[in-house]
Write a structure and sequence with these properties.
Length: 171
């Protein structure tokens, strides 16, 4: 129903009519395009001394800026909701990726620990041989060895012992 029809109804019934954020197209000049505005308005019947409707009081307030701002806020809120959904999705994807990489890292660390243990044990066998042979040479052939040779053998045994201690600490 158009504005004239609403005015006729208020005049005929004597009942007030009001609307909020009603869209109105205003044609300022013939050469200019219509301008869209939003208004809150009321058509209030006025009555004469006999109680009959003799006019209509019209009060309208331009709320175009508020309506546009409200629409912009609603659009921004939708965009924010969509962005939050995308962020939540991406966060879940990243969490899955972190979990996968953590699992892979734990497997790799386990493999490195096994490899380290194996290497350490493999290194200890020759060190024990060095210690044992240097000790045999010092106890069995000490009298036949020059003092410098005896010192070298002691240093070999001592160094092999320190190396064995370092390897044990790694294990």
């Amino acid at each position: 129903q158009g504005y004239l029809g609403k005015l006729d109804r208020v005049f005929a019934t004597g009942e007030r009519h009001a609307e909020s954020e009603a869209r109105v197209l205003l044609q300022p000049l013939k050469d200019e395009p219509p301008r869209e505005v939003f208004v809150n308005y009321v058509y209030q019947p006025t009555r004469g001394p006999n109680g009959a409707v003799d006019g209509i009081f019209v009060h309208a307030v331009d709320v175009s800026e508020q309506v546009r701002a409200h629409r912009e806020v609603a659009q921004l809120a939708r965009g924010l909701t969509e962005a939050n959904a995308l962020l939540a999705d991406r966060a879940a994807q990243l969490e899955d990726l972190v979990q996968q990489r953590t699992t892979k890292l734990r497997e790799t660390v386990g493999e490195l620990e096994s490899f380290s243990y194996s290497i350490a044990h493999d290194l200890r066998a020759p060190l024990r041989s060095l210690q044992g042979f240097s000790e045999v040479l010092l106890t069995e052939y000490c009298a036949q060895l020059e003092p410098d040779a005896q010192g070298f053998l002691r240093r070999i045994g001592s160094s092999a012992g320190r190396m064995d201690k370092l390897i044990q600490d790694v294990l």
